[in-house]
Amino acid sequence: MTAATRAIKASLRRSMLQEREALPRADVVKLSQEIRLLVEASDLFRQAQSIGCYSSFRNEVETSPILESALNSGKIVSVPRTFGNRLMIHGEVTDIRSMLPNEMGILQPRESAPPVLSAELDLIIMPGIAFTRQGDRLGFGGGFYDTYLQDRSLPVMGLAYDFQMIPEIPREPHDCRVDCIVTKSGIIMSSGGCAKTEGG
């Protein structure tokens, strides 16, 4: 990563996180509910038998209701645990109340949770600080998802508030793109720079 790219990404992170963390709690709940309904209505979610989904944190689009819905519909549900060296492992969750906070306060599966390999997943739902309609994603810079999804063959869905959709994010060869982004305005299907919006 060049110094210029690093600086642009850092500036974007600061401004987008500031706007996200300024959201009133009532807005987070309302927008997350609207996004959840679109996720649950999507073919990707309905047809998936096994999903990996992030545990929401710091005003991210809330995922506890999505996890509950997936469990109630009989899906295999897993949530990531992160380790050093960009290592991320999904652990199966059968009751979201069984998860424990890590050192950052993010709920994650217990160490005893059975691991779920990426090859066993039908869908990954991932967070992001910002997205583009081409599927580019800005994360926290840890590289966990980029490493985990290097050789992926499964669809990846990002969840975002409308303001998190921006025109451009500097992209590097190792950066993971998402196949769709769900906002309250609809489902944006990305495909190498060609995108359409469904549901709004």
Task: Label the structural class.
Answer: alpha/beta
Strand order of the largest sheet: 6-3-2-1-7-10-11-12-13
Query: In total, how many domains does the architecture comprise?
Result: 1
**Shape, principal axes of CA atoms:** globular
Low-confidence stretches: 193-200
CATH homology superfamily name: NagB/RpiA/CoA transferase-like
Average pLDDT metric: 89
Radius of gyration: 16 Å
Span from first to last CA? Answer: 36 Å
CATH architecture: 3-Layer(aba) Sandwich
Counted beta strands: 13
Portion of residues within helices = 25-40%
Largest sheet: 9 strands, mixed
Number of helices: 5
Tell me the strand percentage band. Answer: 15-25%
Order of helices and strands: HHHEHEEEEEEEEHEEEE
CATH T-level fold name: Rossmann fold
CATH class: Alpha Beta
Q: What can you see in these coordinates?
A:
This protein has five helices and 13 strands. With about 200 residues, it is an alpha/beta fold. It has one domain: NagB/RpiA/CoA transferase-like (Rossmann fold), CATH 3.40.50.10420. The strands form three sheets. It has a nine-stranded mixed sheet. Strands 4-5 form a two-stranded antiparallel sheet. Strand 8 and strand 9 form a beta hairpin. The longest helix has 19 residues. The chain is globular. The N and C termini lie far apart (about 35 Å). The C terminus is likely disordered.
Entry summary:
With 200 residues, the chain is of the alpha/beta class.
Question: Any chance you could write out the topology, listing elements then pairs?
Answer:
Elements: H1 3-21, H2 25-41, H3 43-47, E1 50-53, H4 64-72, E2 76-82, E3 88-92, E4 100-101, E5 107-108, E6 115-116, E7 123-126, E8 130-131, E9 137-138, H5 144-148, E10 156-159, E11 180-183, E12 186-191, E13 194-198
Parallel strand pairs: 1-2, 1-7, 7-10, 10-11
Antiparallel strand pairs: 2-3, 3-6, 4-5, 8-9, 11-12, 12-13
